[in-house]
Specification:
CATH class of the largest domain: Alpha Beta
Helix content: 40-55%
CATH architecture of the largest domain: 3-Layer(aba) Sandwich
Number of helices: 13
CATH topology of the largest domain: Aspartate Aminotransferase, domain 2
Radius of gyration: 21 Å
Strand order of the largest sheet: 4-10-9-8-7-5-6
Structural class: alpha/beta
Largest sheet: 7 strands, mixed
Length: about 375
Amino acid sequence: MFEKRFRDRINLQQLEGLHRNPPVIEKREGRFVTIKGQKVLSFASNDYLGLGASHQLAAQVGKHFKAFGSSASSSRLVAGNYQTICRAEKTFADYFGYEDALFFSSGYQANLAILSTLFEKGDILIFDKHVHASCVKGITLSGAGLKGYRHNNLKHLEKRLEALNCKNRGVVTESLFSMDGDLLPIKPFGDLKKKHGFYGVVDEAHAFGVLGDKGRGIAKGVTDIALGTFGKALGLFGAFVLLPRGVKEYLMNFASPLIYTTSLPQAHALAAVAALELVEQADNARKIVKDVSESMGETLIREGFQVFGNAHIISVLMGDEKKAAQVSRDLLSLGILAFSARFPTVPLGKAILRLGMTALHREEDIKTFVNALKTVV
């Protein structure tokens, strides 16, 4: 019975153009990966500053794991609350301008923990309809009343706030949206927060490291909580949440996704601080990311493609799911890796090619990609 269900659903995914069958990456060298022995130019990475391919960071990571071992060997609340980790969290809080911070094993786990724990029945959560799947899962598990608002439409958000005029209201959004590539209108969002007094949760996973002064993001001062990940611009793995004073203690006492999992090791905390130091020094890399992103977007628009995104995530509209998947396969045959985002990652009928621009990309890579895309579309 189960086998038939699994087989039938996979067959349906294939018929609808929604089947996932990611290529096997044999190795990575900078902006290139090797697939089936072929060197492929990748636009599918979130390694925005190139730190994930950095030999300097890799040496630091190796040094710390050699010195401190490979595992915390315990959950945070039993025997995994190392001084090294606490100090690293304080370093992150200070750098990004928040009162406290807490490390998690992944961004998904972090969003699940903060949203399912800090909000409960009787509260109201108002969320941008394009927030990450981990946010959706977290707010669903919270038990709070839920209301979505149209993507990045702050007038619609204000209508929601006026209609739901209760005491305990939270708003969940992103600063740089992971698929659309557009930015949260920071000043209008901050104005709404001042006017309506909601509790703000902003996912800055794709902004931290790249946007704002020294990569500090764009939502400081307009949100209570901000989420970041190590696995994108910081070139590592895991996640961190930036918090007001007192919330860390609350999460450590009540957040199941944190309580019932093994802590990240001490070596990771030290490696995270090393990555943060490299981020602080990465002004040149941030300029390269900005320049190549603008060039890619402008070139695609000139060639007649429908393009979204005003930072280092660029979405090229394909529309049909089968078309998007086929274009991605055709690009791969020409030596280019580009991710086709399809339902449910994006709305049905709104499939895209999602491009992650990095400091490793060059102007000639843009020409290569656009010429190849014109060939296969």
